[in-house]
Amino acid sequence: MSPPATILYCRCAYAQVVPTGVKNDVLQKLCDSNASFETVSDLCEMAAHRDPRLQAIASCGKLRIAACYPRAVKGLFQQAGFPLPADTEILNMRTQTAQEIADALLSAEPATAA
Amino acid sequence: MITHTHRPLRVVLYEGSGSIQLPAESRAKVMMALLDKGYTVTRSSLGAPAMPHDERNLLVLGAFEGKAPALEDATGKITIDTCDITGLEPDAIVALVDKSRGEKTMNEPGKWKPWFPVIDYSRCTNCMQCLSFCLFDVYGVSEDNKIQVQNNDNCKTNCPACSRVCPEVAIMFPKYQAGPINGDEINEHEAGREKIKVDISSLLGGDIYSALKDRSAAAKSRFSKERSPDKALDERKKCLTKLVGDGFIPADVLASLPSTEEILKKAEIAKARAAAALAAQ
Fold it and tell me: Are B44 and A36 within 8 A, CB to CB?
């Protein structure tokens, strides 16, 4: 059995482009679960500063990220110098529902929306 | 590229062995409040993977019932503080974190918008149009002659103009509202639409001069006696003002454009750099 994925939640706190209701609901659902997870204030802000924490995130193994468009998230990590592993699953809080995202994040199976 | 980052703490909401779990609602309120202030927060519960350490000090919050354990990093590299939050309301927990941070500087939302181009290298053909186009030296060339974003702090907030000159729709601004500039997937229809936009927005950068030259040549016969450099400049301003009016670029970008001489100089330099990089490929 493969180890559980690490869950990362981006709050997009530096610009309100992710619907507030969705991001609050996703976080609430994560909090309602028993899962451990990591949260960051804003991945864009971290990428802009080449925050070394991104390297830690990119190198932590199997990863599921709740943020925004997968193309943008992959680009942010790559541009900061820490490309994400190819099998990283990225859930999009700008287009998907909170339930879809929470289900995918907390699922024992790989998500289909990466 | 900005490299300064101020994140003095990694907050860990510890709900593993030896602590009592917070009510889910309180947990969510605390995490939302901390994230909105700029903190990063780990929720740690039983039997789940933890993220790797980084260089920051840890502040471990837990309902330890008055018995917060004293912890020490085995490597001696980071400081670990523990705080008992038994019975505290979410506001009091957030205040405790702020107090623990003290006067240490931290990047905070609301003071700056992370606005900069992100290149989708799976689409980028290294054509260097963005390098030639940008008047603010955001782009540069790597040692191996690849286009890259080198000075993202030079980028003008809310200006996505360079993404519109990219013939491959490879430039994203993740904080932009609409796709595909925001990173949304690109279909052929959108790619075609972006290419049409190039003809409009390329007026802003180095290409403005060739575009204006063309217009100028066409108008020369009509205005040969009254044509002047001032008129050409007026014409450029009209074009740029139209771009602002159409919502393609923010007004403050127009206000912060370099002088005509500087633009010409920058365009020449960028053109030379792009040509050198392309020749070296």
Answer: yes
Tokens 């403005």 -> residue: B208
CA B216/CA A75 separation, integer angstroms: 40
pTM: 0.82
Interface test with A, best of B51, B124, B130 (most A CBs within 10 A): B51
Range 17-36 of B in CB contact (< 8 A) with A: 24-25, 27-28, 31-32, 35-36
Residuewise pLDDT in 10s, chain B (281 residues): 444 567 778 899 999 888 898 998 899 999 999 999 999 999 998 755 566 666 678 899 999 987 888 887 878 778 889 999 999 999 999 999 999 988 888 888 988 899 999 999 999 999 998 888 888 889 999 999 999 999 998 998 988 888 888 889 999 999 999 999 999 998 876 666 545 444 444 444 445 445 434 444 443 333 333 334 454 445 445 656 666 676 667 777 777 777 777 777 777 787 788 888 888 87
Tokens in use for B12?
Answer: 């860990």
CB within 8 Å of chain A, chain B residues 55-94: 55-56
Omega into B23 within 30° of 0, i.e. cis? no
- Amino acid B146 reads K
Shortest distance between the Cα of A68 and any Cα of chain B, in A, equals: 8
Residues of B in contact with A94 (CB under 8 A): 182
Q: How far apart are CA B158 and CA B30, in angstroms?
A: 31
Nearest CA in chain A to B40: A40
Shortest Cα distance from A107 to chain B (angstroms)? 14
- Cα separation, A23 vs A13, in Å, equals 10
